[in-house]
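hiii so my PI (J.) wants the whole complex modelled not just the main chain, which honestly fair. so below is everything: three entries, each one labled with what it is. i double checked the lines twice but i was tired so who knows lol
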Amino acid sequence: MGYTTVADRSEAVDAAAALAAPCTIDGGDETRAFVGRYPLLVDHIGAEAGIVEPLLCARALLQAQGDIVRAVSLVRAWAATLPRLANTRVQITELRAERRITPAFSQPRGGQYLGASLDYAQRLLDLGTMAEGESLAAPVTRGNGVVAPSSFSPAIDPLVAEGLIVRDRCAESVDLTRTKQSGGRGGLLQLLARGETGTMTSLAYTAIRGYGQRQDPTLMELRSGFLPVRMERPDGEVFIVGEIAATVAEITLYRLHDDNGADAHFTLGVGATPGRVERRAIAAAMLDAGCARAATDPDGKRRPCDDEEFIRIAIDGQEASGFVEHLKLPHYVTFTSDLDRVRAAREGEVEA
Amino acid sequence: MKPVIALRDVTVRYPSGVFGCREVSLDVYPGEVLGIVGESGSGKSTVLACANLDIAPTLGSVEVMGVDVTGVGGAERRALRAKSLGIVYQTPQQGLDLDVTAGGNVAERMFGAGHRSYQHVRARALSLHEAMELPLERFDVVVKAFSGGMRQRVQLAKALVTSPPALLLDEPTSGLDVSVQAKTLDLIRRIQREHGLATVIVSHDLAVIRMLADRLIVMKGGRIVERGLTDQILGDPQDPYSQLLVSSQLA
Amino acid sequence: MSAFAEILNERKPSGYAWAYLDEDSKREVRRALLKAVCIPGYQVPFASREMPVARGWGSGGLQVTLSIVEPNDTLKVIDQGSDESMNASALRDLIARTTGVKTTTDAREATLIQTRHRIPEDDLAEGQIVVFQVPIADPLRVVDPRTSVTRRLHAERDYSPVWLYLYEDVATLAAPSFTHSYPVEVEGGYVMAPTPIPRHDIPRLNDAPFLALYGAGREATVYALPPYTFVKPLEFDDRPFEIEAFPMPCALCGAAESYLQAQEDSDPVRYVCSDVAYCRRRRESA
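here's the output for the full assembly
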């Protein structure tokens, strides 16, 4: 079956989707069922752990309650102390393909094979039957049942009172999914709240690792729990509509010297994320602080971790992965144009 | 005769409150070289930046060819610079793209002025390249590979390619070897005379000033403390600061 | 049933709004398109919605098409010139399912054509709209990755950096290094990214009878060329723009001026039209 020459698309898509559908693995235990149900997630763990053992990876994911990074740690640590028995080699041309596409060529020798892939299905969320719809709407009780006292006052309050930390930097509320403005700091915070976790973590890492301005960050406070959500009525009255699970982090960078003449102080960065993914909140706070610091020196050198313009481009996982993976789309028309140029240039060289 | 460049009571105050320069007035006429001297922090670079329209004065006005161009920006500024002003910066990176060929750096100014013929632009850039005594075989070589002295010559070629009436030089030879300095200054003097360019040269080095400038102004703390003919000031400085400057360098 | 459950139930595929997008989203795109048509080649930002195709896979072109499609339109969707491409099929499927419009592979019949990387070979007419899928909206991206910089360059019509880029190519490589996506100058002074169409298709944009709309979903930008707009590739007066050359005509239909595609699985390699429907029609009527 060809790649672009299939007249009846739906057949090919159904076939690819069928191959990609989760399957039940015999054996009946939870781990095997997990591998059958979430093969791509299991592969993801294995790749980052550097080990090809699906059942082990599934086990790690279950133990880590779905935290990818933790699952990878479990597997890597487990593998680290095993004896190395032998060195092996692979020859990539020997890969026995279940799937093979050639975006540069429309009709390569051997043809194109879609294989098992979800690439060709539209990304429409399947909400199932009416009954399922009803059940999706029913609230989920979160939390571990332990209720911590909610009367913690923010840990940095004394320092704020002393004037060493300025808490409320301007951040106008903006909905980037509904507006084309970049939204200043408010927009940046929203981007960070929705940012791709790995990207944010990497950028924050490079900052601490030395690629940013000297920052020496300190995590002042991390809070995880439930955040009341407020709404304003047309008559101006504000009321609480409910709560969401959330995590908030506050980071400071100390600053002794300021070109603008400000006294020594701490720059505050705030990161927040719905749910309980702590590294997201911490990374977001780091990046917010780094950008705030960089903004005081508009002409200063920028590195990715404190370059707000760079961060805004890099941080959205959907844009990043979509564009990277779009390379799988056919590109034979454009490649033909490239070939034309390269061949012409070589002929020119040969003549000269 | 109208001055090519005129600053009238120009004061520059930065947002932090620091003054770049205060109440500076100067005129530069065709064919003459005006030197601006002072130590670092004296405001001489700020004055040059105003003349090049890089900075807009907080108070006062800037005129080019008799036209008030204070605060002009955007496309208008670009067109004005291409037509009327050539500048050589202290560090080549400020004026050139080091990853671009010598010819390309010069050609870019012509594209900015609307030229669209490859051969014509190339030929004109080449003629400037040769006039600046740069080796022919380096015309299509990226500037990164050039020595400091050669980079300054590329800047000169770029500054002059659109035949502007004014040339601005910011410490054009600092950082160069003494022998290279001498050659570069010779070249500047020659082209200045050939083309009758109204020239402003900023330098902390009085030897450079003595060689090139007809008149000079001495700056301290953002203000002009003395002005006059070069020979007069260097020979018989009146202001105490000028005296200090002259004696420390030319003693 | 709870309010949320009601919403969930309304959102099943069969229950989506006509042309998928809600009215608010369509309004957002249409307003941006109106502005774009008034300023040929100017990049107009818009609040791009998350779509059921990945970013980079046509979400922008899709938003444009869904915002302007009308019930009596006849739709053609192509990718690399082919109606049968998986990506083109997926997009056509979504649009057709949510609108019920007639679809066709004949470019002469279509009133609305969404395309990736090609302009159909057939002569198009007044009244037709071509929607281009855009990967990189800014032709100055090669000069600087920062929108903050390129936005100012466009505002000042300061295109000397891209002319310099061309100069350097000619001086050091003997020819422009742009292959597809060749930057064009548009009537009114803006330089525009024509999308990765081959050089072969660039002359078709000049003084074209059709309306050209460009949608970049990931970059949240639209731009447009109204019919009969002057469009010229950036070229030196004395260095004419060159289109791709092929060693032989189409092996299937004999077309000598069509953009061809090598087929490596035949020996010797043969060349066939990339516009599959055009080629097939030529063969059938021959």
